[in-house]
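User: Hi! I have a protein structure encoded as tokens and I'd like to know what sequence might fold into it. I'm fairly new to this, so please keep things simple.
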């Protein structure tokens, strides 16, 4: 039996982030990762501006990958909204780059990562958790579940199941013309969107996302159709990958000092499909709660720290599906100066949606002194295949 102060189940972004912060604070933590190679996880490869902001605050600035200062937020074929910003809205990097960068910080912090430790079940005797794995048993008074969408920690402790979105991604698709803008095309498929993230001047990651119960075969057909319409004739350099993205949150017995973070907690944004920011934010709250409180007070401290975040999860659980059903309204909103002045400025500074709305007047006033969006243009009612023939957005 291996004993420590905190067991972190899962060695992805959320698990590594939590363990790095714990070890920096002197907590004896161990990470249990069931995969020998976690770099194979399906990932769009985009770190949003608020993810970059949060990482900098955590002392883990990320400057790898390709910086994105051009973005399209479209509702096809009705609204095409294109923006150029001063501050990068995202960085695009493959999962291998992201994981190796996180592992570098983990090694510097002295994190112990046990690979090939597939979790079979998690038990709680009222005082300590016991995690039974293929690499032995691990015991601790606190546990952080960061083991993904089908979390064994959540299932073992009786947590409810979050809702599931579906996504398919084709990595490093060769394109016929240079791309330098991240593209989101809402209504490219029911209750979802298609997206393009440029990885170089000649390749891009392309994918589709939906919260509808669409089958895998139909989703694959949608991906092929979307890719041909958006990019014209392309060649897939690697097999198409699929995954599920949990959203809407989940419920867990409040008496248990167990903390679910990232996908294990069902925290994916159902409107944008973003999950890395949610993984980092919840991991940060979990680590702070463990560091600052005795085990019996950890859960309550975690929920206090998560109050605003959880309010956003509840908001998106209600409004996310409505927004996807009525995407044209979002397209019209994107044409307004209010949107460009508030959304991008607050997003790159780590704001939640509720924070964006509450501080909108301040962001508007700030925009009079500093313009974060240096160029924007809008177009309506153009078929998607004709958009693929247009030149990229210019400064």
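Assistant: Happy to help. Inverse folding works backwards from shape to sequence: for each of the 395 positions I chose a residue that suits the local structure. Here it is:
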């Amino acid at each position: 039996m291996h004993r420590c102060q905190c067991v972190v189940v899962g060695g992805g972004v959320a698990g590594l982030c939590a363990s790095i912060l714990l070890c920096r604070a002197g907590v004896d933590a161990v990470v249990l990762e069931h995969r020998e190679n976690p770099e194979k996880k399906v990932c769009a490869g985009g770190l949003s501006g608020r993810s970059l902001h949060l990482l900098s605050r955590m002392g883990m600035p990320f400057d790898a990958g390709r910086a994105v200062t051009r973005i399209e937020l479209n509702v096809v074929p009705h609204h095409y909204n294109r923006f150029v910003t001063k501050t990068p809205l995202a960085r695009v990097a493959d999962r291998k780059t992201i994981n190796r960068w996180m592992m570098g910080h983990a090694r510097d912090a002295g994190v112990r990562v046990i690979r090939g430790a597939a979790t079979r079940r998690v038990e709680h005797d009222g005082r300590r958790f016991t995690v039974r794995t293929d690499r032995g048993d691990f015991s601790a008074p606190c546990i952080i579940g960061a083991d993904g969408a089908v979390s064994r920690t959540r299932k073992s402790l009786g947590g409810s199941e979050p809702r599931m979105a579906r996504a398919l991604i084709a990595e490093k698709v060769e394109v016929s013309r240079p791309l330098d803008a991240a593209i989101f095309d809402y209504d490219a498929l029911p209750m979802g969107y298609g997206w393009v993230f440029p990885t170089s001047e000649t390749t891009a990651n392309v994918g589709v996302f939906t919260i509808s119960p669409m089958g895998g075969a139909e989703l694959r057909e949608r991906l092929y159709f979307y890719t041909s319409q958006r990019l014209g004739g392309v060649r897939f350099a690697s097999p198409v990958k699929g995954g599920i993205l949990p959203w809407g949150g989940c419920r867990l017995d409040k008496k248990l000092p167990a903390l679910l973070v990232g996908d294990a907690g069902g925290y994916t944004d159902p409107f944008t499909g973003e999950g890395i920011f949610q993984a980092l934010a919840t991991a940060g709250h979990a680590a702070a709660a463990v560091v600052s409180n005795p085990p019996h007070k950890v859960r309550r401290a975690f929920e206090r720290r998560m109050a605003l975040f959880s309010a956003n999860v509840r908001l998106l659980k209600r409004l996310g599906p409505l927004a996807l059903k009525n995407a044209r309204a979002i397209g019209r909103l994107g044409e307004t100066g209010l949107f460009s002045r508030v959304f991008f400025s607050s997003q790159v500074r780590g704001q939640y949606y509720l924070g964006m709305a509450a501080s909108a007047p301040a962001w508007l006033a700030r925009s009079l002194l500093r313009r974060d969006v240096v160029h924007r243009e809008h177009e309506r009612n153009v078929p998607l295949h004709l958009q693929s023939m247009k030149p990229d957005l210019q400064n």
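A useful reference point when you look it over: The radius of gyration is 21 Å. Feel free to ask if any position seems puzzling.
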